[in-house]
Every structure is written in structure tokens, then in C-alpha cells.
Amino acid sequence: MWFEPVGIEILPNLMVFALSATVPGYFWTLAFYPEKTSIDRLERFAFSILFSITFLPMLVLLENVLLGIHVEFLTVFSNTVFLAIISAAIFLVRTQRATAPEFIYRFLPKVKKEDSVGFFPKIF
Q: Any bridge partners for residue 35, and if so which?
């Protein structure tokens, strides 16, 4: 009889949950707090989880209620990617790594490149 360790079958589900519970929120923390001195790493991690579990279900719920789009894996995945792309674009515009029309900066104040955090987090 083949022996399979307990819990190995849920490993891919846990990985998907961990990524969807942190990645979109991390990019939103970059968009909201691009400066190095605004928040530290632990706060950025906590905010990334908070923003992910707030914005992703809210977007999925709004799509379901207002547009009648069914909640499926593909819709949740595409919303995760959509949220990450939008927030990454806001970060790039705010840190002047991407150009935007001047009226955008009325809503999104500029931050100098050297004063902003890196796009990818430093783990250690």
C-alpha cells in the first residue's frame, strides 16, 4: 500500500492561498507607502495581508453582484493579477520610474527614486 504523508495534498492550495493573501497587498503597500521611512518591514508585511484580504474579496464580490460574474478560480486569479498590476503601475508613477501626465500628480504625489523602497522586498 502506498503511503502518502498527511497534508501533502493540500500543499498547492496553501501556496496559492499564501500568494493571493500577500502579493496584491504588497503591491498596494508600495503604492500607498513608497517611501523607505514611511513604514518598516513588519508593518509592510502586515499591511500586505490586510490589503489583500480586503481588496481582493471586495473586487470579487462587486463583480459578482454588479456584473453577474461567477466566483471561480479564473476570476479570482485574474483579479489578483489585476490588483497587482494596477498598484504596481501606481508605484512606478509615484516613484517616477514611469512617466504620466502632470495632472496625475495632483492625486499621486511624487517620491524621489532614491527615497523609495525597492520593487521587490529584501527577505534578509
A: 116
Q: What is the rounded distance in angstroms from the CA atom of residue 66 to the CA atom of residue 87? A: 23
29: left (phi over 0), alpha (psi -120 to 50) or beta: alpha
Quick one: angle between helices 73-94 and 11-20, nearest 10?
40
Q: Which of 40, 32, 76 has its CA nearest to residue 58?
A: 76
Taking the CB of residue 15, how many other CB atoms lie within 10 A of it? Answer: 10
- Residue 124, pLDDT score: 47
Q: What is the rounded CA–CA span in Å between residue 63 and residue 86? A: 17
Instruction: Please tell me the predicted confidence (pLDDT) of residue 11.
Output: 77
- DSSP secondary structure of 53-71: HHHHHHHHHHIIIII----
For residue 82, which phi and psi values (nearest 5 degrees)? -60, -50
